[in-house]
Amino acid sequence: MEQITSTANPRVKEVLLLGEKSRHRRETGLFTVEGRRETAACLSGGFVPKTVFYCPQIISENEVAALFGPVSVEYVSISENVYSRMAYRGTTEGLVAAFHSRERSLEDIHTDAGNAPFIIVLESVEKPGNLGAVLRTADASGAAAVIVCDPLTDLYNPNLIRASIGGIFTVPVAACTSEEAYEWLHSAGFQILTAQLQDSSPYYDIDFKRPTAVVFGTESTGLSDFWRERSDRKIIIPMLGRLDSLNVSASVAILSYEAVRQKLSTL
Fold first, then answer.
1. Bridge partners of residue 88, in order along the sequence
2. Residue 137 and residue 247 in contact, taking contact as beta carbons nearer than 8 Å
3. What's the domain count of the chain?
4. CATH number, domain containing residue 35
5. How confident is the model at residue 115 (pLDDT cuts 50, 70, 90)?
6. Which of 100, 133, 153 is the last residue of a domain?
7. Which of the 8 DSSP states describes residue 222?
8. E strand residue ranges, 59-154
9. H or E element: which one contains 176?
10. 18-27: which pairs have CB atoms within 8 A and are 24 or more residues apart?
11. Is residue 72 helix, strand or coil?
12. pLDDT digits over 9-47, tens only?
């Protein structure tokens, strides 16, 4: 088993590049995951590990082996100073793993129309923290998928992985153009709703007990005309304060749980 004690080691620099540069992640087909919960979610999502770097002063070899089980992976022991250099967050869980990335496409989404699947569509989301929060809600509410149209953030950004606490691996996620998303949803028989302020009906007047996709725009510019012109209905979350918008992740949570409420009411 290899042991690394110097932060100048080329393998340490490689891990840092994977965490910092989206271009390097694309070129190598690798990304990094830090922490036990996120690593477990990544493994359960079917992602294939390449190397796990662990600090035996923080996590034992047996604990790491139990986490990865029979999966084939290279184990590399690292010193505390190397781990503190590799770690991109303030926790001390003692492991950073490199995984092989894969394309996240519409082909990864499989829905059962009889269960009234609910899909969250995000247009041109830019902030990893926002997308991460949406993915946590999607996981908690049992959303069928999250479709990210024309993404402006890397789906393997470590800040997104951290913000989603591994939800990026537990929820089916697809990245595509708005045109591709619309064609897929339309052909699959989804009602397409757009969350917007103008010419809209209150969300609680909408029937979510059928295959439904709700499209959310960016907080800065809102939805594009593409989705406004193609939606089946426009919905609004009534707001009684002085501000004119909720954070997109809060809006997603409200509508996701309205879908949950309506589904449970029929049981």
1. none
2. no
3. 2
4. 3.30.1330.30
5. confident
6. 100
7. B
8. 74-78, 95-100, 118-123, 145-149
9. strand 173-176
10. 18/98, 19/86, 19/88, 19/158, 22/154, 22/156, 22/157, 25/101, 25/154, 25/156, 26/154
11. coil
12. 999 999 999 999 999 999 999 999 999 999 999 999 999
